[in-house]
Write a structure and sequence with these properties.
The protein has one domain (3-269): Rossmann fold (3-Layer(aba) Sandwich). Helix content is 49%, strand content 14%. The chain is built from 9 helices and 7 strands, in the order αβαββαβαβαβααβαα. It has a 7-stranded parallel beta sheet with strand order 3-2-1-4-5-6-7, with helices on both faces. The longest helix is centred in the middle third of the chain and has 29 residues, at 106-134. It is globular and about 55 Å long. Bound molecules: NADP nicotinamide-adenine-dinucleotide phosphate.
Length: 270
């Protein structure tokens, strides 16, 4: 790994990750630990992460970020365990749901807003005084789905549009404060995300999909370079750039056509 990434990882004492039990969050812990073995990791998720790594200092705080008091309870539990020094907060927990609104049910849709938007906003707010005092960084894991409306994943895309816009706006407000903010937008990534979102067939095009390791490496490189936004993968960067120039109604129709095709294929399979 690059020397500049090791330098980045040495800048922090504690890394707080949400959703380190799986996929991209797990890859953040693995890569940052490889870069700096003395980092202390604090994980907030419902399931305890499983690692087979000698020397990894990982504290797991069981936490449902979809619950009303989830972010506050998680913050209270870990606040006393924070090492002196700079903090990296990785707001990664999130999930989607595939199907016409409100499938699978309204509760699930509202929980998605709670985890993807409310918990991310709450945790950032709770950590902000500490981050300002000690210096540090926040990484928000948004999605390329945040660049356009996403019919059949309407709520998910809208939560990620929030993360994208909110993250970029917050970065400007905090410029010069010693708190760096990076919004990372992965495209399709090979994790449990799709199964959990209710996709039944293989939807990841091998030509477009990235591994969680690739997403994390690109995100950390962007953080080391002081970037504000990273769309992961050059093909996703082209799609996001082209999509952003089209009228919103066109890009919504295109997105509907793509996601409807997956839905029809799934219905045929039943
Ligand atoms: N995979 C993709 O194609 C893709 C693309 C763009 C963006 N993303 C974003 O990347 C992030 C990570 O997703 P992933 O792909 O790594 O999927 P994943 O493997 O399903 O991981 C999702 C993580 O979120 C955590 N989480 C879900 N609900 C939670 C809750 N109520 N409370 C606390 N934690 C919760 C899960 O932990 P527990 O289940 O243990 O609680 C899990 O660790 C998400 O924000 C996702 O939207 C993914």
């Amino acid at each position: 790994m690059g020397h500049y990434l090791e330098k980045l990882a040495r800048e922090f004492a504690t890394v707080v990750v949400t959703g380190g039990s799986s996929g991209i969050g797990k890859a953040f812990i693995e890569q940052l630990h490889s870069l700096n073995g003395s980092l202390v990791f604090c994980n907030l998720s419902r399931t305890e992460p499983q690692f087979d790594r000698a020397g990894l200092i990982l504290r797991h705080y069981p936490c449902d970020l979809g619950e009303r008091d989830g972010p506050q309870a998680g913050f209270r539990a870990l606040a006393d365990d924070l090492q002196p020094g700079r903090i990296l907060l990785v707001n990664n927990s999130g999930f989607g749901a595939y199907g016409p609104f409100p499938e699978p049910n309204l509760e699930h849709q509202l929980a998605m807003i709670d985890v993807n938007v409310r918990a991310l906003t709450a945790l950032t707010g709770l950590f902000l005084p500490l981050l300002r005092e000690r210096g540090g960084a926040v990484v928000h894991v948004a999605s390329t789905g945040g660049f356009q409306p996403t019919p059949y994943m309407a709520t998910y895309g809208a939560t990620k549009a929030f993360v994208l816009h909110w993250g970029l706006a917050l970065e400007r407000e905090l410029a010069g404060s010693g708190v760096q903010v990076l919004t990372s937008c992965p495209g399709p990534t090979a994790t449990d995300f799709f199964l959990r979102a209710g996709f039944k067939q293989r939807v990841l095009s091998p030509a477009l999909a990235q591994t969680p390791e690739q997403v994390v490496r690109e995100t950390l490189s962007a953080l080391a370079r002081g970037r504000r936004l990273r769309v992961c993968g050059w093909k996703n960067r082209i799609l996001a750039a082209v999509g952003s120039t089209l009228p919103k109604t066109w890009v919504t129709a295109l997105s509907a056509a793509v996601l409807r095709r997956v839905r029809l294929a799934q219905l045929k399979q039943k």
